[in-house]
Design a protein that fits this description.
- It is a single chain.
- The protein has two domains: 278 residues, TIM Barrel (Alpha-Beta Barrel); 169 residues, Jelly Rolls.
- The strands form six sheets. The protein has an eight-stranded parallel beta barrel. Strands 13, 15, 18, 20, 21 and 23 form a six-stranded mixed sheet that branches. Strands 14-24-19-22 form a four-stranded antiparallel sheet, with no helix packed on it.
- The N and C termini lie far apart (100 Å).
- Strand 20 and strand 21 form a beta hairpin.
- The radius of gyration is 27 Å and the shape is globular.
- It is an alpha/beta fold.
Length: 580
């Protein structure tokens, strides 16, 4: 009996004290090894281990990864497909990516894992055994090393569980022709074994921030909503999460565990009471209002069950929405992880992968059929796309990063780039900042709450993630972009460096089909120019120049606003010159 008591005391000591070296729960807070409150500011590496069709523009004809892979294989064959995915994974996330995230201000990373990089599908296993694949573990080991070097927490997220955990098939690569996670005991056993294997491997590493044991389950066990939003018990989900926790704790008493409810992580009916002392609740937030009411249920859970909460996934909206959402959760001491790291032609993420014209040919074939591209053409195209995923080849989005970090602290604006006067200023390079301060646009955020309709906050869906509507521009002398869909009363602000106190004239480069525009300029010292009329040019691609004179600017820094009294035109650039 004495030996048993000593063993139990030793186990209790390891749970209480050894676990303190790791990110862990302390009441309703997440704290580090020194007991300091930690607000996780994270990014999900979506698309790296689990591809989703919308990220590669293969939706809706190929949304889950297995369908995307089949489309590729049908074009270039099995061997070339293997080579493509090897390059895609090698380029998708590197040390340079993690170094960049740390420099921008992120202190955590959420890794969406596909189980099939760690263990084969149950259909290929023999006699019910569970075997292992080294690829996923090696990728995770490398990522963890880069995170530790940058003092960034790595949160392991089982995004695609064996068999797939939701009817929203693309999220978990669910193949509806095979048993899902919930329809197969073998799949559930494999999931439990995978988590035990991961926990055993990483149990002593304090830079593993947490285990997010199942991403966005969305399944109807007893309810009518196929994504589990009307479930009242969620019994199978609770039972599986308990079994996973038990398996983890057999080898790892150190690490925090995140759990998620049904209905894409948000339906916690029947999940309580909690079953582990070092646990936190995750919720996902997309497109709804950024009010306290929008997170009140999770706040209530935090209080009632004395447990931390975490916004484990969010994004795919405008910079204004990002600022509002992050401000809301941080005000309530809730950490966050945004989504995703990289996708093709992306304005709402922190980076964008360049799409090449040849890729459009593949997309058109996959969607509509017709003449089949040659294997050689398709392989070269796909390998170029894989190369474009390298950090040095993506386009970094400074406006998104600014919204996530600087803008939640202040409404002050800053220059998008250095603008010297005299000189040319492109309309798309207006200040970094939020709506009403750096610019004014009437459509600047998307709320998909009551109607479920999706409306773009940026009709151009190009270059920047604000409400300002930007399109590609082919006018000579442009930077490749134009501001379009201009409405009455909107405006843009530019922080400028003026060489001398002078009176300036401004050449305004614009186009319009039939609308007659009207604008004036206003400076931060209250000076206003006269208004100037912009007559219709007859076409959106027929560009003309109108000159406004008499703009008085002082030497030094000036914030100049371009006020659109009447919209209906496209704006390319403003060229400031000293008036003689």
């Amino acid at each position: 009996m004495t030996k048993l008591i000593l063993t139990l005391l030793s186990l209790l000591f390891s749970i209480i004290f050894l676990g303190q070296d790791f990110l862990h729960r302390e009441g309703q807070k997440l704290v580090d090894s020194k007991g300091k409150n930690v607000v996780l500011r994270g990014l999900g590496l979506g698309g790296w281990m689990v591809q989703e069709g919308y990220m590669l523009q293969t939706q809706p004809f190929a949304s889950p990864q297995y369908m995307i892979k089949q489309k590729i294989q049908d074009l270039i064959g099995r061997e070339n497909t293997t080579a493509f995915y090897k390059a895609y994974k090698a380029n998708g996330i590197t040390k340079q990516d993690i170094d960049s995230l740390a420099a921008w201000g992120f202190n955590s990373i959420r890794l969406p894992m596909h189980y099939n990089l760690y263990t084969p599908p149950v259909e290929t296993e023999k006699n019910g055994e569970i075997s292992w694949i080294e690829d996923g573990f090696t990728m995770t080991d490398n990522l963890l090393k880069w995170c530790a070097e940058n003092k960034i927490y790595l949160i392991l997220d089982l995004h695609a569980a064996p068999g797939g955990q939701g009817n929203d098939a693309a999220i978990s690569d669910y193949d509806t022709t095979k048993p899902s996670l919930w329809q197969s005991e073998a799949n559930q056993k494999k999931m439990i074994a995978l988590w035990k294997k991961l926990a055993s491997r990483y149990k002593d590493n304090p830079w593993i921030g947490a285990y997010d044991i199942i991403n966005e389950p969305n399944w109807n066990f007893t309810g009518t909503n196929k994504n589990g939003c009307d479930e009242n018990s969620n019994g199978p989900l609770r039972e599986l999460m308990i079994a996973v926790t038990k398996a983890i704790r057999e080898v790892d008493t150190n690490h925090l565990i995140f759990i998620e409810g049904n209905c894409w992580g948000n339906n916690y009916n029947g999940i309580f009471p909690l079953w582990d002392e070092n646990m936190a609740l995750s919720f996902h937030k997309y497109w709804n209002y950024n009010t306290t009411a929008s997170i009140q249920k999770m706040l209530d859970y935090r209080t009632e069950y004395d447990v931390p909460i975490w916004m484990g996934e969010s994004g795919e909206n405008s910079n204004v929405w990002f600022k509002e959402a992050i401000s809301l959760v941080e005000k309530n001491n809730i950490g966050w992880a945004f989504w995703p790291m990289k996708k093709i032609e992306n304005i709402s993420g922190i980076t964008s992968v360049t799409k090449i014209p040849e890729y459009d040919i593949l997309l058109k074939y996959w969607k509509d059929g017709g003449e089949k591209p040659s294997a050689d053409f398709a392989k070269k195209t796909l390998m170029k796309i894989a190369d474009n995923y390298k950090m040095e080849n993506v386009t970094v989005k400074p406006d998104v990063i600014d919204a996530m970090f600087r803008q939640i602290q202040t409404n002050d604006t800053k220059a998008y780039k250095k603008h010297s006067i005299p000189g040319k200023i492109f309309a798309s390079q207006y200040d970094l900042g939020t709506n009403g301060y750096a610019y004014l646009d009437k459509d600047f955020v998307n709320y998909r709450v009551e109607t479920g309709n999706f409306e773009e906050w940026n009709k151009g869906n190009t270059m920047r993630n604000d409400g300002v509507d930007i399109l590609p521009c082919k006018d000579s002398g442009s930077n490749g972009y134009q501001v379009s869909f201009i409405e009455d009363g909107e405006w843009l602000q530019f922080t400028t460096e003026v060489a001398k106190t002078k009176t300036y004239k401004v050449a305004i480069r614009y186009s319009s089909i039939k609308g007659i525009g009207q604008i004036y300029f206003e400076t931060d010292n209250g000076k206003k120019s006269k208004s100037v009329i912009l007559p219709a040019t007859g076409s959106d691609t027929d560009w003309k120049t109108v000159t406004l004179s008499g703009l008085q600017l002082n030497a030094g820094s000036n914030k100049v606003r371009v006020i659109f009294e009447k919209g209906g035109f496209n704006l390319n650039y403003l060229d400031f010159k000293v008036e003689k």
